[in-house]
Amino acid sequence: MRSPADMDIVQIDISTKCHKKCSNCTRLISHQPKREDLSLAAFERAVASMEGWQGPNRVIGIIAGEPTLHADFEKLSRRFAEIWGGPTTNNGLAPVEDFNRFANERLFDRSTGRGLWTSLGEGFYRHYETIMEVYGHWNTNTHESAGLHQALLISREDYVAATGMSQEQWVQNRDNCWVQNLWSAAMNDKGAYFCEVAAAIDRLFFNGAHAWPIEHGWWQRKPEDFGNQLELCDCCALAQPGPSQIDALERDIVSAQNLQRLAKAGSPAVKKGKYELYDAGYHNEQRTIQRRDSYVGEGPRVGIGNVSAFPRRVSCVLVSVGYAEMLKRTLPHNAPLFDQIVVVTSSEDKETQKVARENGATLVVSDRCYDDDHAFNKGKMMNDAIEALKDPDWVVFTDADIFMNRGLRAYVLNHALNPGCLYYTQRSDESEVENQQASVNREPNGYFQLFHPRALSIRERWPKALSEAFCSAGGIDSWFFQQWPRHKLVFVPDLHVTHLSSRSLGENWNGVVKKSGKWSQLGVLTSAGFASFLPMTELPPEIKLTDTLNGDTVVFKTGELDKYVRVVPNGLEFLGKDIGRHHIHVAYKTP
Fold this sequence. Notes:
By secondary structure, the protein is of the alpha/beta class. Helix content is about 20%, strand content about 20%.
């Protein structure tokens, strides 16, 4: 045996929840009478108790049934990153095609000092963004490859009686136990333990009676200090040559003495008869564990369960007001690529309504684009369209004049995508657009924005995902992508799209049909100065500014610009806030 101080992994057991009921689970999941989570305060105490631990290539791992099912997994994980280990990672931002290989790479990543023991599943998918950032090291096993789990619930008394092994040999095997020597000590809601399996046994059978207090330095105990925790080994046969069971059979091999203990603990598996009573004649395998990972067999650790890391649906949202002729061309091409495509248009645009219906799109009719004397508030229209999405998973924002890449659907559904990222691609114009810089076609603009509603960047706003401060179609797509940190804007060249070009940049941003008395976009203001989209010899007497970072807005007399905007070393300051290189949407009221 060894001191926890000499281990490279110490586990914190955070939950008894799991979507699996594997045979001979070391967490005894199928026997847990309740599904319970470790509190955040208890978790913080456990991490704090490890201060000063300098194990080789050290990792504090979180384990459970399935840790990602903890009710506060995200909060717990983010706190974990604050109080232990190295900085967060940039793993898994780019689309991942071979998830098995990616997961295996994580098995050797100790960079953060934080580890996750997981079987994937719904919790993993739900917390993908957080997992990628917080946990450098993963130990992934989906338990789908007919792995062999050695029987642990054979008591010392029953094992010795059945096999004839001497007590001396049993103790010698115990002291050389592969779990304690190759794996980890652990903490749970009851306390700290020299062995992770002992922790699970004490919690279920003895309500933590053998636990050490979780206090700084508990892990410095040496084997001679383990005391009565060694009694927990009397309930466990993992150190002894013994039988194993295919994990997917979902039934443990249990000896008579432990069967009584399980019944007393209220084991659901025992109540359902989901166990095999240990019989040395029938269960005559004498398996021993030699290597850290041989417990699960030689098959792949990540089986077909890796599908839980991949997208399930892809939907689309677009605005078409006055674009029916273009939509007639693009929608028949685009619609089959999505599980749902939502088209929002105005009440007066009957032709777009007809095209949408004919192509099986979900039609939303709204005139909110004209509210508040706005020329064409695209953000309001998009928000109305979002409300019509059914069970949204991955969503594409695009325009009525865009042909999607034919391989879009296959690509999305066959790559693990990080829900914390906004993915974008390159656009090709069918013809040259006047006054348009080439870079516009290689930015995360509104012609293609692929994202997940669960992204930390926008989830608090969803389903009102877009700002409604912009009076035109210009600025809103810039505002939207600028809600994401720059490193989470990920370019995907394989998804390039084609644009049915307009004649000049900003041509229809104020609507195809121009209306008087409306706030309309005039141009943009950057640290390099003002650029107008409209032919004007002088600025109007009153203008409205809206920044594309925060969506803050101010209306003022033209000569008072210096009161609200100034150039600073980092770019622009607007209304007293540093908005850096983000630009400002400039609008005026049409006569």
